[in-house]
């Protein structure tokens, strides 16, 4: 299995910015642009052949060699198989002083001594205005379709955007030049948490808190912000030269996509795949919402390992077990003490009870479980299932109760007794001080912690039991696994198949609810005076919900909608088909362009986005949403370090394009190995800037040797021959 063939040409082959003489001046017949900033759109009869000829110029060896073979490759007149043209190649600079349009888009080679990338934005606007990025069915063929990963509406351009735009633009332009109807679907994501944070900060600058506004007032302010600033990332992606069809641009909160989201929720619920329950989730105390695994970043930070005594009930003063923990404040949520069954040190205590410190004598059982590592700490594990993922799974396996000691704002609740109302970190210090005072503290030693922090807010994430909506993933994952096994979906590079399979094989149910105001409201309505878990209706709108409720509970029933919104990734999972009109499968775009051909994105979101799109595509359309997944690596600095503001090593693509040109940046990014991280340096950019200028000169030589516009016989001869490639 292999991906559709990709060109060996650089992603932005720089060539002179003026047109070929056009024997067919009819602009309506012009096909899609070649797309490189330094190339004008060729006339219709020449588009495919000229594109192929230019692709033949790609290799550096073709440019640097001075052999006659090199000149033969550069001169299109020498592509003829067995006959000479009716005219002789000669310099024809005087024929190229005309511009491509009255807007003076392109410049003359006699004026420009080197490639002038300052004109890139003007060239792009001309391309777009001519409609060159729309799919063209004139030459037939199967469509080539790429759904663009939707950028966050709050985002600003970074090297990750530059990478996917570069690679996807190579693919879409190549197949467009091959004559296939090519569609690259652009769009943006509403980015629930990120956007709400931005607007809350804006309101705070005005002295307004979100709690001071109604939900409707707040969302109105968010829409106002979106209308004012939401196009920033789109314009920056255009600056990269992305040749996508902007007339089909989508936003995840558009009416059409919102309709698709509601329909998807209802269909999953009707199949019994969506349920509500209280489970352990990643909770952000500052944002006051559950967050996905992707929105949690782990960092190594200095901390402490606290050792404390748990006395054995009914034993002597010497009968105690020493436990090491990094979070002593969670001891109020302990429901058991566990040791490894093969650890002889504690075998005599298994089956007895231990007394949890500072809880006025609360007892918990001492159990044996193979999960416990005898080598970590003292080999004794406190089980706090309400505040640790591993403890949570042990408790569910063994049927242990679950205690939650934390409020949603990160303070301790009434279960903590005297420590109730204290901040979790403040309580940690106070608790340790009291343990020392009561002789239950053993020692405190430095320890490197792996701390989970919110990607958006930066605060420490708290594992917390919370009532949320979930999707049952196992049946969906099974079909996504089979798609790869049967060859319906190809993942490139192939090594990522193993990661994909491993994640889907061990998949957990997906928490899809978020405690936000910005996003797709969960289409669930509760009955006033009834229990939420048992009495609710799922509907497409409020009118339908009321009708369903009245049918079941009587005409006097009152209802209210669930205040939560859906995880942003839920709407993103529908992206390949919701952007084409689903659930209306009769739409022309859906019939022509679904399923897509390639999904290209970073390998870091293989699980969170790609796999979910595969599962949802199969579930709702009966087929995989794309045939190929092409994964690129991350962009690092010249020393191989991840770019971050704290390190001061972030390279801004906008600044880079202004200094080196978009072609040089794109060529640098596409030179890496598929799936591997790329180290980006100014030295490489400088070198590739010079290389793009070599392509400029090669193109200048090529175009200067073309026949005159009026030489119809010569053009007929040229068009009658196929370019070898």
UniProtKB/TrEMBL annotation:
Family: Belongs to the class-I aminoacyl-tRNA synthetase family.
Keywords recorded for this protein, A-Z: Aminoacyl-tRNA synthetase, ATP-binding, Ligase, Nucleotide-binding, Protein biosynthesis
Single GO molecular function: aminoacyl-tRNA deacylase activity
Residue ranges constituting the Aminoacyl-tRNA synthetase class Ia domain according to the UniProt record: 123-681
One Gene Ontology cellular component: cytosol
Annotated catalysed reactions: tRNA(Val) + L-valine + ATP = L-valyl-tRNA(Val) + AMP + diphosphate
Protein biosynthesis listed as a keyword: yes
Protein name: valine--tRNA ligase
InterPro entries noted in UniProt: aa-tRNA-synth_Ia, Rossmann-like_a/b/a_fold, Val/Leu/Ile-tRNA-synth_edit, Valyl-tRNA_ligase
Biological process (GO), any one: valyl-tRNA aminoacylation
Keyword Nucleotide-binding: yes
EC number assigned by the record: 6.1.1.9
Cited Gene3D superfamilies: HUPs, Isoleucyl-tRNA Synthetase, Domain 1, Valyl/Leucyl/Isoleucyl-tRNA synthetase, editing domain
């Amino acid at each position: 299995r292999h991906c559709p063939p990709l060109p060996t040409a650089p992603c932005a082959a720089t060539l002179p910015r003026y047109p070929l003489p056009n024997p067919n001046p009819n602009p309506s017949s012009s096909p899609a642009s070649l797309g490189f900033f330094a190339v004008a759109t060729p006339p219709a009869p020449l588009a495919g052949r000229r594109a192929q000829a230019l692709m033949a110029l790609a290799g550096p060896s073709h440019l640097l060699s001075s052999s006659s073979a090199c000149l033969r490759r550069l001169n299109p007149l020498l592509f003829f198989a067995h006959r000479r043209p009716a005219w002789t190649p000669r310099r024809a600079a005087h024929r190229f002083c005309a511009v491509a349009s009255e807007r003076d888009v392109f410049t003359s080679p006699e004026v420009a001594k080197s490639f002038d990338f300052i004109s890139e934005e003007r060239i792009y606007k001309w391309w777009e205005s001519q409609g060159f990025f729309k799919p063209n069915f004139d030459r037939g063929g199967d469509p080539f379709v790429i759904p663009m990963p939707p950028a966050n509406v709050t985002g600003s351009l970074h090297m990750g955007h530059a990478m996917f735009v570069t690679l996807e633009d190579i693919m879409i332009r190549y197949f467009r030049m091959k004559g296939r109807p090519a569609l690259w679907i652009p769009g943006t994501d509403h980015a629930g948490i990120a956007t709400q944070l931005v607007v809350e900060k804006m309101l705070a600058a005005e002295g307004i808190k979100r709690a001071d506004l109604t939900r409707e007032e707040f969302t109105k302010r968010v829409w106002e912000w979106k209308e004012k600033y939401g196009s920033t990332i789109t314009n920056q992606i255009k600056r990269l030269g992305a040749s996508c069809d902007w007339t089909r641009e989508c936003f995840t909160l558009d009416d059409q996509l919102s309709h698709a989201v509601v329909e998807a929720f209802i269909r999953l619920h009707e199949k019994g795949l969506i349920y509500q329950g209280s489970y352990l989730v990643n909770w952000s105390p500052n944002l006051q919402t559950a967050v996905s695994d992707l929105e949690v970043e782990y960092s190594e930070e200095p901390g402490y390992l606290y050792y404390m005594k748990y006395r054995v009930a009914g034993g002597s003063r010497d009968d105690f077990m020493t436990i090491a923990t990094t979070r002593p404040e969670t001891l109020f949520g302990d429901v058991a003490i566990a040791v490894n069954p093969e650890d002889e040190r504690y075998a005599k205590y298994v089956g007895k009870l231990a007394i949890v410190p500072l809880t006025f004598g609360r007892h918990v059982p001492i159990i044996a479980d193979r999960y416990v590592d005898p080598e970590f700490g003292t080999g004794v594990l406190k089980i706090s299932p309400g505040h640790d993922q591993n403890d949570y799974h042990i408790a569910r396996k063994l049927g242990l109760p679950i205690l939650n000691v934390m409020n949603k704002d990160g303070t301790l609740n009434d279960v903590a007794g005297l420590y109730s109302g204290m901040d979790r970190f403040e309580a940690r210090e106070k608790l340790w001080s009291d343990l020392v005072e009561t002789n239950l503290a053993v020692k405190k030693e430095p320890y490197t912690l792996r701390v989970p922090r919110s990607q958006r807010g930066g605060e420490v994430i708290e594992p917390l039991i919370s009532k949320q909506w979930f999707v049952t993933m196992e049946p969906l994952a099974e079909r996504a696994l089979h798609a790869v096994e049967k060859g319906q979906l190809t993942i490139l590079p192939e090594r990522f198949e193993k990661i994909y399979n491993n994640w889907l094989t061990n998949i957990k149910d997906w928490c899809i609810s978020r405690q936000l105001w910005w996003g797709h409201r969960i289409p669930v309505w509760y009955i006033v005076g009834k229990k939420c878990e048992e009495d609710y209706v799922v509907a497409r709108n409020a009118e339908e919900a009321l009708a369903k409720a009245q049918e079941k509970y009587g005409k006097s029933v009152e209802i209210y909608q669930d205040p939560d919104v859906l995880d942003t990734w839920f709407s993103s999972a529908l992206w390949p088909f919701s952007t084409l009109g689903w659930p209306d499968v009769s739409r022309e775009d859906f019939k022509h362009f679904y399923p897509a051909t390639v999904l290209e994105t970073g390998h870091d979101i293989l699980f969170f986005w790609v796999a979910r799109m595969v599962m949802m595509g199969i579930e709702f359309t009966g087929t995989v949403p794309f045939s190929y997944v092409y994964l690129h690596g991350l962009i690092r600095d010249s020393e191989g370090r991840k770019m971050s503001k704290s390190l001061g090593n972030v390279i801004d693509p906008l600044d880079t394009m202004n200094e080196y040109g978009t072609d040089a940046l794109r060529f640098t990014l596409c030179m890496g190995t598929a799936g591997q991280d790329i180290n980006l340096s100014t030295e490489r950019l400088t070198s590739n800037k010079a290389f793009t200028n070599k392509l400029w000169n090669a193109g200048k030589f090529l175009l200067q040797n073309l026949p005159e516009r009026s030489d119809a016989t010569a053009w007929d001869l040229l068009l009658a021959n196929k370019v070898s490639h």
